[in-house]
Amino acid sequence: MTEVDIEKENAAIAKAYKELLKVSYQTLTVADKKLIRQAFDVAVDAHKNQRRKSGEAYIFHPIAVARLVAQEIGLDATCIAAALLHDVVEDSPDYTLADIEEKFGKTVARIVDGLTKISSLSKEADVSTQAENFRKMLLTLNDDVRVIIIKIADRLHNMQTMDSMRSDKQEKIASETLYIYAPLAHRIGLYNIKSELEDLGLKYTEPEVYNEIHNKIKESKEEQDAYIKAFSKVIEDSLDKEGLSYDIKGRPKSIYSIRRKMLKQGVSFDEVYDKFAVRIIYKSDYANEKFLAWKIYSIVTDHFIPNPIRLRDWISSPKSTGYEALHITVMGPKGRWVEVQIRSERMNEIAEKGYAAHYKYKEGNAEDALDTWIDKLQEALESNETNAVDFVEQFKLNLYSKEIYVFTPKGELKSLPKGATPLDFAFSIHTEIGMKTRGAKVNGKLVPLSHELQSGDQVEILTSENIRPNSNWLDYATTARARSKIKSSLKDEKKEVAVDGKEILRRKLKQLKINLDEKSINEMVVFFKLKTSLDLFYRVGIGSIDNTMLKDFASSRSGAIMSYIKSKIRKPTVVQNIDKDEITAKYDSLVFGKEEEKLDYKLSACCNPIPGDDVFGFLTINEGIKVHKKNCPNALSLQSNYAYRIMQAKWIDSSQQEFAAQITLSGIDNLGLVNNITKVISSNMHVNMKSISFQSDDGVFSGKINVVVKNNTMLKKLMENLKKINGIDKVIRV
């Protein structure tokens, strides 16, 4: 770089630093500014010789992360300093954690230590899975929740500046973001950041889909703005008449949420029904907030008819993130649904800043909501018996859960995740009550333990001293807390049964003249197709492996030598088509890795890829390479947790092989519809119909067709032709 360039860059760095101080949400004191300046100087010195992949000086990254922390998340000077220093210990040999503590105090050092721990995880040479990294990362929640918050800001800036990376790296980081960081941001109440992380995640995992929706939103922007303006105008006069001070803003739906709706409802972009969203933010003192919210609600519903099942009142019972608002969906002009969010300025700040705004409004009690949340997650964090992937899945369950509110018999309000059952409720009150649950009453009526609770239910738990959890309970419990307690109770019980089982097995084998030793145990585990010796002893203990089965084992043991000799003499017969539905390809259609090698593989049953689909290979432990579609429901989890087992894969010439796919149709039944459908299928060359089933219910028609095609293009063509049939409304590939 020339001297002029260096000067320019230094000026840009100084400017970025000044901006950081200017945009801070908290008011910075002189001492705060001094602390931030000191952190900035250390960061500049530590990163002086470093550049990012894009070529710019590395110091821009910590400044950008600190800016997000200051402006978007609204944290204080301590966090801004920690964000500036987040890579210092890891990247520079000149600074140790002790230096940071000496210069900036214990809190900053603790946060930087947490962030360094997380960063150094993924660089360990042989971490068994990425999930193990996530687990360790989530465990740092215990150290200081601010670690995770700054980590989310760090991830957001990385996602914003990922263009110059290799595409496989982009995909791995984006999958990880959608899998773990977006749910975390959601749960901490950073809704704006969550939306941006999701949109960027989609941009790199499914670029075509992202660009298509992005362009459509762009095209319809003018029309949307005009619509929102017309909608607002109708209510503005009434709001003014009441002398309210307010602000009405249109709010674009995020690309990711539109995509999620399209998939969930099987609809096109144009059919997503509440792309329009309006936010009414009103000024109010704390005492009148609730009264004014409902006043505005009544004004909006005077003009527009509300959808009665889409009213959400988070003012009377806020979410556990502290989020408060009134949400209604109303029928706007031109017969379009519009989501209206009603919030006071205070509520709006909490919705945008979460943690930090609580701080501002509650003077020091800020951490209430966060603490209760972390206490809840503590359960999942403590149960270390589960393997890492289960642990992360369980943790995610708790992250994304929507909430319902139920009452105890005494009338106290408890929040539980949506889908919770009386069993979850029992464990949320106390582990002992959960363990002794005999039954439950909801609103005074006896219900099964699997009954799904609804907001507003009053729940009473009936207990008994003689009850113990049984394995069915796992089908009834949904929360991480309940499941981990039930699992550990069942494990203890299983161990007790297994101890008895081992003795029973020893006696029974003695009669069959077999010693119970390591060799015979291993042989039995294999013979009975089990996983561990504990399973073996447990099954003998409960009697599911009985005398007859053990005799079979004994005779197979003595017969093994004979059958080995026989098999050498006799020519083995080849079994044809032993596993027809998982086609192990013998054709030249799919190649793996950069070298485009041809390897044996199986097609995964969860998403049934066919030639032409975007796919990747996943190296399983027992079944070799399994091929998944890139938009398979399990793809994110696999790409995040097992990034090192993912193989690039693509289809090449697939002229020989045929693949099964299923299409579902729905529409309005009319005479000759089935005939038209079968005509279209038979007139499509190279499409072979395997099975077809239709049903008509009061004039509504639905059907399933299993076809065999050579590749994706043919399937798309067939679906397009089916869509053209009069009466058909939707055609979806399952």
Automatic annotation (TrEMBL):
Keywords from the named record: Hydrolase
Coiled coil: none
GO molecular function, one term: hydrolase activity
Entry GO CC: plasma membrane
CDD domains, sorted: HDc, NT_Rel-Spo_like, TGS_RSH
Protein family per UniProt: Belongs to the relA/spoT family.
Function in brief: In eubacteria ppGpp (guanosine 3'-diphosphate 5'-diphosphate) is a mediator of the stringent response that coordinates a variety of cellular activities in response to changes in nutritional abundance.
The protein's name in its UniProt record: Bifunctional (P)ppGpp synthetase/guanosine-3',5'-bis(Diphosphate) 3'-pyrophosphohydrolase
Source organism phylogeny: Bacteria, Pseudomonadati, Bacteroidota, Flavobacteriia, Flavobacteriales
